[in-house]
Amino acid sequence: MLSSEKLIFNYVAHLLEAGNCAWICSILKNWGSSPRPIGAMMACTLVGELVGSISGGCIEEDFLEQ
Predict the structure, then answer these.
(1) Beta strand 23-26 with 41-44: parallel, antiparallel or unpaired?
(2) In what order do the strands lie in the sheet with 50-52?
């Protein structure tokens, strides 16, 4: 079984090989009752496809808008 990080990197590699763009995001620091640990990752595309999670679902939509 692949780890979530490997799944994300495989997804991004597939996108890049097909000539598409992608962003990889990772949690570098957190505080309080953060739902995801440091190192949590997410990849997204220009059309809003997401793989992984950086917040458990609470800020992914806002991230895409930014």
Answers:
(1) antiparallel
(2) 23-26, 41-44, 50-52
On whether the pTM is more than 0.85, the answer is: no
Question: Would you say 37 and 45 are in contact if contact means Cβ atoms under 8 Å apart?
Answer: no
| Cα gap 48→38, rounded to integer Å | 23
What distance in Å separates the CA atoms of residue 26 and residue 57, rounded to the nearest whole number?
14
Name the 3-class secondary structure at 50: strand
The pLDDT score that the predictor gives to residue 24 is 93
Q: Give the mean pLDDT of 36-46.
A: 89
13 in helix, strand or coil? Answer: helix
